[in-house]
């Protein structure tokens, strides 16, 4: 099954590097706070928390910051963790492209205003809840480093209960994205680890049931500008959309 997330693939090909380290730290710290609040503060017993901690360490966040975020979420440092909530927003980009946004905020009015401004400045509009959500399904995605023998890898996936996979090559690196049911993410991850596979990342991702191919360079630029603008907002955790760009067009608009 190709295209576990067209926007995720486009972001990789764009090689966009987020230099705003403080923004990255804040975003991941909020994810740790909410994960600790929604489940046990023990990463061994809380897969969402464990995944957030692994992202934090990969981003270079100090252990003290990680422990402080867990303490906030579990209520050990007061009610700070209770101020944050997960909200999903939906809207349309140029040409009616469907866009789904996951945000983590302590102020709904601020977040909605920021999103509305981002859409309006980039030929899109923020819609009502449910306007495009039906076009997406949430899945668990495991990124596996260098799966080597594909036939052996496929057997391991079948045994572990995975649904589909996609092999991706970037320069000299080959990795696989494995798609699983949300409730099976931890189970499949542990099964593949047991068989010796290295998991780079485990995350929940919204996947579009159908995608729209953009052929016009001007529309492509507007869409990429909107997606980048949304992605850079402090309260936004993830952004996905149901469009894809042919590689020649992507190379053209990135000049």
From TrEMBL:
TACO1/YebC-like second and third domain boundaries: 85-243
One GO term describing the cellular component: cytosol
Chief place where the protein resides: cytoplasm
Keyword Cell membrane attached: no
NCBIfam families attached to this UniProt entry: PRK00110.1, PRK12378.1, YebC/PmpR family DNA-binding transcriptional regulator
PANTHER family, sorted: TRANSCRIPTIONAL REGULATORY PROTEIN YEBC-RELATED, TRANSLATIONAL ACTIVATOR OF CYTOCHROME C OXIDASE 1
Protein name: Probable transcriptional regulatory protein GS597_15940
Species annotation: Petrachloros mirabilis ULC683
Lineage: Bacteria, Bacillati, Cyanobacteriota, Cyanophyceae, Synechococcales
